[in-house]
Amino acid sequence: MQNNTSWMIAGLGNPGRKYVRTRHNIGFMVVERLAEKYDVLLTQKKFDTLFGVGEIGNIKVILAEPMAYMNRSGPPIIQLAKYYKLELDHLLVIHDDIDILFGNLKIKAKGGHGGHNGIRSIIGATGGGEFPRIRVGIGRPDTQIDVTDHVLGKFSVDETKHLDPVLSYASEAAQTIINKGLTLSMNKFNRNGVGSDNL
User: Binning pLDDT at 50, 70 and 90, where does residue 5 land?
Assistant: First the structure.
């Protein structure tokens, strides 16, 4: 694979049945939506990562889910990226964000961890935050619910009704980044979220 034509799209989450379809695992869910859409089998295992190799719009991609827990997800992702000789600017990370409303997302070209343990782990493994990411909104809980319980909890009944278009929107954002670049993608997706009241 050549660096200028290959990307890794890594979704963040926690492994295990307990965490399936929880808010913290929305990164996994977006990667799985991409795998389904582009016929990529997530069956290969290396460096404690479940992944598959395929194409999105004639661009070679590695779709990856680190199987370490969220706060240790950095080393597996970086080992796999190095194995495929990918630069950090071709590592797209998808993760949940409580500071963004459910139904919206934000694309960033680089930056800090913003308190997210998975991003903190990747930055620790790379020595910097020079990788793009899609922050998928899960919203903050109301004041009576603990933040950890909210993040590790299942989506509400109402959110579950609207989850499918959110996953499609985030997967479209990833595809647009891969094929058309970050600037166009940020202009398109950062301004026009799905918006939970428009779902």
Answer: low
This prediction has a pTM of: 0.93
Token output for 61 = 């991609």
- What pLDDT, on the 0 to 100 scale, is given for residue 143? 75
DSSP secondary structure letters along 168-184? HHHHHHHHHHHHH-HHH
Q: Tell whether domain 6-190 is in CATH 3.40.50.1470.
A: yes
Is residue 24 among the annotated active site residues?
A: yes
Domain ranges of the chain: 6-190
State which H helix or E strand residue 95 sits in.
strand 91-97
| Beta strands 59-66 and 49-56, pairing class | antiparallel
> Which of these is catalytic: 24, 95, 116, 162?
24
pLDDT at 191 over 80: no
